[in-house]
Structures are given as C-alpha cells and as structure tokens.
Amino acid sequence: MRDLAAARVVTEIYDVTGVGPTLFGRNGGGDPYYTDGELRIGVISPGAVPADGPPRVLPDPPVVAAKDALFSAAKGLVGQDAPPQH
Question: By CB count within 10 A, which of 26, 49, 59, 67 is most buried?
C-alpha cells in the first residue's frame, strides 16, 4: 500500500471489518500471530493515473475505534507488543 501511495495512484484508503481480532492465532507453520482483524483497502485511480496529492484516509467508524481500544487493552493484559500499523 505504501508503494502505491508513494506512486500517487491510490486516491483513498480505509479499513473494513475483516475476521475480527485474534490474539492467539497460529499460521500454517505454527508461528504465532495477532491481528486487529481489519482489512486495509486502497482505491486505485482510474487507469492508475497519478493523483495530484496524497490519498484521502477515511476515519474508522466509531464501532471500529471502540473495538481497537478493547483489542489494545486486551493485548496489554496478555503482554503482547502492539501490532504493526497498516
């Protein structure tokens, strides 16, 4: 997403609710992972023509912001580091 935004072909960025928060997930190789469960969406400009400025980042809906606050608090209780930012 960063490379597309740097190329100025992304016009809008927003999150949508995905699978939901996961604190104790394991991937196919058995490695632990955690996620806030959101999916980041980037809207590509028509024809991938470079835009005049940076992409517009839409705010999270209130329910997503509340879920993020709860997820952050839960991670603190189990001693995990903060997840990487989108």
Answer: 67
